[in-house]
Amino acid sequence: MLRNKPILIKVSFSCYRNNIFTSANITSRHFHQTTSALEKNIKVDSTVLAKNFQNADEFNKLSVYYSSLRKTIDSVPEEVAQKSPSLVALHHRLSLPKEFKYATLSQCLSCPSSKLPSEIKNDPKLGVSFTKTVLAPKTSDNHGLNIFGKNLLTYHITYKLLRRYPRLPTVILNAAIDAYISSESLASVGKSWGIEVENTSVVERYLKNEPVEITIGKLRYFNNSMDNAEGIRVLLNNNFSETNAYALAVRSIIAGIWASTGGENSKDVFKFIDDHILSRKLDVSKLFQFEQPTRELSMLCKRENLQRPVSKLLAESGRNSKNPVFIIGVFSGDEKLGEGFGSSLKEGKARAATDALLKWYCYESLPGYENIALDKGTIIV
């Protein structure tokens, strides 16, 4: 019977041995390609189809299902999107504004697909070559929303960090921003939102009579990344993985909130970022690594017209034992700047200077005084 037999389709751009794709390898992520590219590249072997379908009507039904699915994904009607249970659930779960249409939310989940390989090089020295990522139709993917969302995230998080930590060096500031909006961080946020990935092949969905509303409510992309295996690592340019797809979806949803309201209620967008992105805990002090803390502290005190820092032994234990402990404090005049401990006087002195530097750089403005503290810049040692 038809439902119990695998369906094999021969393609001219095949990326697997013997130039054969199984039905599980043809997923909805391929539909982001244009119609002309598909018609140009795919050549159906009529003899293979005749043996598998045994009925031309069945294949015609599959063609009709495929065409309707492709047409819907290219331009999702609002009335169809409103019937998608995944889109409705995600819309309510994130408390998106009423102006945010379900069709726009579906577009946020449609990523620019990768172009399938047109040429395979079997030379082990060259590995498997993939062409660069190309865009799906601009009206149906989240490419533009992703760029706008990334700019919104960068602006707001930079503003919040500088307002809270006005003395952060530029290098540490960039590292903190990346910790909040990197692809890995945003992917974890997208997964926590309950966004599902479309992994079912078209043939399987056709055999199950799955409605198109299910497809448009899932994250759609084409994965051209390759995993490490047996100690061999294949490096590809413009890899597009599930992590990147989730990150694109999160940025696009943030941009969609701004676009749907016309930017009039910018506070809603920034509150959304505060609730879902900045709500995660980040210890900024863990991002610092000082090579010469004592010297840098001396330069800092000199720049701020403070007295030269002096290290003093506050307490010690077991000086002549195997595991001594020294507690060192660093002072500028009568003011204690920092404190540290170590198994030697040198180690304790370095940790005390590091503690003093962290207290300076990680200074947090008090509520109502955020615009008063202005830093003079990074210390150059």
Write a brief caption for the model.
The protein is mainly α and 381 residues long. Helices cover 44% and strands 7% of the residues. It folds into 2 domains: 236 residues, Ribonuclease iii, N-terminal Endonuclease Domain, Chain A; 71 residues, Double Stranded RNA Binding Domain.
What does it look like?
- This protein is mainly alpha-helical.
- The chain has 2 domains: 49-284, Ribonuclease III domain (Ribonuclease iii, N-terminal Endonuclease Domain, Chain A, Orthogonal Bundle), CATH 1.10.1520.10; 292-362, Double Stranded RNA Binding Domain (2-Layer Sandwich), CATH 3.30.160.20.
- It contains 15 helices and 5 strands.
- Strands 3-4-5 form a 3-stranded antiparallel beta sheet, covered by helices on one side. Strands 1-2 form a two-stranded antiparallel ribbon.
- A hairpin with a 7-residue loop joins β3 and β4.
- α12 (242-261) packs antiparallel against α13 (266-276).
- Mean pLDDT is 78; it is low at 1-45 and 114-136.
